[in-house]
Amino acid sequence: MTPQVLIVGAGGREHALARRLAESPSRPRLWAAPGNPGLLRLASRAPVDPADHPALAAWCREAAIDLVVVGPEDPLIAGLADVLRDAGLAVFGPGARGARLEGDKEHAKLVMAAAGVPTAGYAACGDLAEALARLESAALPVVVKACGAAQGKGVAVCADRAAARAHLELCFTADAFGDAGRRVLLEECLTGPELSILAVTDGRDYALLCPSRDHKRLGEGDTGPNTGGMGVVASAGLLTPGLGRAVGEGVVAPVLAELRRRGVDYRGVLYVGLMLTPDGPRVLEFNCRFGDPETQAVLPLLRVDLLELLLAAARGDLGAWLATLPEPGPGAPRDWPGAALTDWERAAAVVVAASHGYPGPIRRGDAITLPPDRERAWVVQAGTAERDGRLVTAGGRVLGVVGEGRDLREALAAAYGLLADVRFDGLVCRRDIGGGLPPSRSEP
Ligand SMILES: Nc1ncnc2c1ncn2[C@@H]1O[C@H](COP(=O)(O)OP(=O)(O)O)[C@@H](O)[C@H]1O
Ligand SMILES: [Mg+2]
Asked: Is residue 309 within 8 Å of residue 209, measured between CB atoms?
């Protein structure tokens, strides 16, 4: 029987998931709600509004969907996975109580405290007067975070009190983030390189995928405004000694145990955003889903069937499935939970091509010319649309070019080589993705 898989979302992450799922030996039929032009070359559009959760559940039942993969955080925070699971569907993605780890940064801090997870010290404040009073005694720099989901705009790293006051006023007085800014964290500022680690879990067992590093700033040399991510590298070269154990036993396992203690059944990705400080890894934040664009770089390094992995997590069988895997391949780090999932002798990179004006107000409708995919480089679409049969820009991050190779140098060369043939007016990209990183692996 052909497995029927629905992907919820419309971005580069969802296109990357579809690309990898389409390679599954069980040859699934893919559906997308709502999808984008790239994703819809691999999937049929589900004839239902994904924002209408009961209607989506009813359609999935009717279409005998075997697995729903929810890409973005907003529907997870809003409880889509609960509605689908209540309808008897297998869902990859946590319910609202699990997704609160991303949707409420104060809640995440409380779970981390209960689980003994190392993170930055903080104070939570519910109004401007309280926050300003706290600020007087806070060490500088200080990080000011809106507690709710604010599309990556709710956090400011503030060098002085004036900047912190300005961000607090955005949250409380200007109401720039709506409900998301009604509570705020004043957080200790940590230093060190950042790293993202995606844990795939069924709430009990888990496997860590290859670590990756995002490039958040718009400009080369990490300058300019923050964005949703301008590029990513994923490689064993990002590993540091003891990282797998620190993240597995020190973060993921205790958080899952604390969630179980609270009666939360977490199935999906627990995305751990880390800072590698001089005192060891510290958690900056959790996300409740695959990262975008991290996923575009991490999935090509899998040496297992993504469909089997996601189904096992969604069904609560991950431990049994992991036990069927062969030994980890050459170059795998020791003490890395789920090391057998990744090909550690390969690396991947993503370079994002954004619209004119991004991350401010963007121009839309510029015609896009895409080169054909190559064996080691391909285009993942995000903010694209079809107009009169032509592909045009339709969002901030228009697409990502993924490159793969034996090390980051090869992966980056493949990505930039293909990007040279991608054309649209106003294309903005960074030329320095992966710059300053070790190009080949260093021993873990
Ligand atoms: N405690 C901290 N110390 C230093 N930098 C931080 C700290 N917390 C967050 N940051 C910086 O701000 C960015 C965004 O913060 P994060 O908590 O990941 O929020 P979000 O991704 O929801 O915007 C991080 O990637 C990091 O660069
Ligand atoms: Mg973040």
From this structure: no
CATH of 347-419, one of 3.90.600.10, 3.30.420.10, 3.90.640.10, 3.40.50.300: 3.90.600.10
Return the residue whose CA atom lies nearest to atom 17 of ligand 1. Answer: 285
Span 322-335, pLDDT tens digits: 999 999 999 999 99
pLDDT digits (tens, 9 = 90+) for 53-108: 999 999 999 999 999 999 999 999 999 999 999 999 999 999 999 999 999 999 99
Pocket test for ligand 1, best of 73, 112, 122, 157 (most atoms within 8 A of CB): 157
Ligand nearest to the CA of 157: 1
Condensed to tens digits (0 to 9), the pLDDT of residues 173-211 reads 999 999 999 999 999 999 999 999 999 999 999 999 999
> Rounded to whole angstroms, how far apart are CA atoms 401 and 378?
6
Q: For residue 232, how far is its CA from the centre of ligand 1 (angstroms)? A: 16
Q: Is 222 touching ligand 1 by the criterion CB < 6 Å?
A: no
Instruction: Report whether residue 104 contacts ligand 1, using a CB cutoff of 6 Å.
Output: no
For 4-95, the fitting CATH number among 3.40.50.20, 3.40.980.10, 3.40.50.300, 3.40.190.150 is 3.40.50.20
Q: Among residues 306, 286, 270, which one has the least CA distance to residue 67?
A: 306
pTM over 0.85: yes
- Which residue puts its alpha carbon closest to atom 27 of ligand 1? 194
Distances (CA, A) of 394 to 354, 357, 413, 427: 10, 12, 27, 12
Which ligand lies nearest the alpha carbon of 108? Answer: 1
Q: What is the CATH number of domain 194-341?
A: 3.30.470.20
Query: What SS3 class is residue 346?
Result: coil
Ligand 1 within 6 A of CB of 118: no
